[in-house]
Amino acid sequence: MKTMFARLKKFIYAPGVSGDEGNIASVIAADIAPYVDKVYTDAMGNLYAFKKGTGKNPKKLMFAAHMDEIGFMVSFIDERGYLRVSKMGGINYNAAAFSEVEFRSGLVGVIVPEARTAAKDFRPEVFYVDIGAKSKKDAERRVKIGDTCRIAPRLIRLAGSRVAGRPIDDRIGCLMLFEAAISAQHFENDTYFVFTVQEEVGVRGAKTSAFSIAPDYAVAVDIGGAGDIPNCAPFEVVLGRGIAVKLKDGMVICHKKMIEAMKSVAEAGNIPIQYEVLESGGTDTCMLQQAAGGCVAGALSVPTRYGHSAVEVIDMNDVSGGVKILAGLCGTRFE
Asked: What is the greatest pairwise CA distance in the chain?
């Protein structure tokens, strides 16, 4: 568990706002390369780690987790040196208000709403970033239009096996793919561990990577929700009771064959699982399912409190169970 925490922290501290994932991609590529047969990227920036299957009739199995995180892009610099920014992904401005931000260059600032703006009136156009610049020229020596920034990363230990921080979405999925790649005892199928780009702005990287691979079977890994916080809507999934096997969300109905395959691995390994049913939202799964002629697609969701905030909370025991299921799928003979 200590090793997983350390690697998660390493992944979290590597920047990777949507469309600017080069840094986190380099970190993952360097770490996973010794454990797979080939590491490469495509034109869009998706990172692939390929492991050749040893089965007599290997299928193409694809695992996907997105590298990108929500953030901001500089769109305007005013005469006083304040930065206006365009959102990259689904920003919760109540959560983002009065937070520290950091740029890929190491520059830091704070994102704040205009003076006398009530919380009920928070919207993108009333927010700006203060980097401490004295003027437009001063700011332009440090940033330029198009630079990206993110809410400052953090990872802390809570009680027991729980941790909090950001961007757990979806560096935890990236960690799970990595851990599965290094722990799987057998690769029955040609297995692609794909770390996708631009999920937060429209599941774009999953579309191109899945089209390129044309997998027979695929699993996306991302965060989910949690129904164990005060005043939340009724929801079956809670922290600490196991990884969640997705049944449906607003963009996908998972294939029963993949659901059963994950269930079988869980039962064989005495791994606790939960089942996730969502009314809305979506992950890379929908693009995996629709690629080329389609494939048998499913998803694992890490039960998560306070998603898209600076204090996303997960239970690492749920994560460990999910890794075991992914590793088990690596050795599964699909018909």
From this structure: 68
Residue 332's nearest CA partner among 286, 303, 305, 298 is 298
Q: What is the per-residue pLDDT across 29-67, written as a single tens digit (0 to 9) for each? A: 999 999 999 999 999 999 999 999 998 889 999 999 999
**Which residues contact residue 270 at a Cβ distance below 8 angstroms, ignoring those fewer than 6 apart?**
none
CB-neighbour burial class of residue 331 (10 A; exposed 0-12, middle 13-18, buried 19+): middle
Catalytic status, residue 199: yes
| 113, two tokens | 């709403």
Active-site choice (199, 200, 276, 312): 199
Closest CA to 198 of 5, 24, 9, 12: 24
Closest alpha carbon to 108 in 130, 124, 89: 130
Query: What are the chain's domains?
Result: 2-69+167-330 (3.40.630.10), 71-151 (2.40.30.40)
| Measured distance CA(59)–CA(335) in Å, rounded | 8
Q: For the whole model, what pTM was predicted?
A: 0.96
Instruction: Work out the number of other CB atoms within 10 angstroms of the CB of residue 260.
Output: 12
